[in-house]
Amino acid sequence: MHSGRTMVLLFCLLMAIVSGRVIPFFTKVGARLSHVSHPKLLDKTIFCVSVVGALVFFSSGLFELPLSPAWLMLTAGILHLLRLVFWQSHKTLRIPLLWSLHLSYLALAIGLILLGLSYLIGSVTFSAALHLLTIGAMGLMILAMMSRVSLGHTGRLLQPKPIVSLAFALMIIAAVTRSLLPLIGLFQLSWQLSTASWVLASIIFLCVYTPILIAPVKAAGFNLHNLLNCY
Asked: HEC string of 51-113?
């Protein structure tokens, strides 16, 4: 279990690297903004803190360390929040393929902060924070990215059907219910609501995108500009 939790932190590092490259670009193109960027020093700092944090966390399961992983997790989460501030999230509220990515990144930041707080505050559980990362950050980011590239790579406009927004919302509900309801003792309800929301979100994606992914590519609309917009 400890190795598995360490892998979650490594996936968080992977998401941090990829998100720092693609989310600002997607936001600039999708929201038609002149400039979306952040200080490059943040990228290097987040990378270093995340790597050290994962190593310290893994090592803490093997032997006693003078340094708690709590402070590294808190620092990483705060750095993610700081980077998100530069991405002008408020200008993506009407664009589902963007606000879903921004929310998933927000879940990454808050999840890491809660992981750190779980070492310091008894009412914050490690499990709750971990599920916010695995469902809210990973699950929503995967769903949002699949929704985007499935359109772009088949030569379609980056305009998903309205019901796709419901899928994003259901993934958020799955994350929130699984993370928060156990804190007030509603364990079984949290599992049921979270599972149902996750399954419904996945069903919506399959129903909307299966016909797209098995249909011939729209060659007329599939050009270099559309392909670049996917990235």
From this structure: HHHHHHHHHHCCCCCCCCHHHHHHHHHHHHHHHHHCCCHHHHCCCHHHHHHHHHHHHHHHHHH
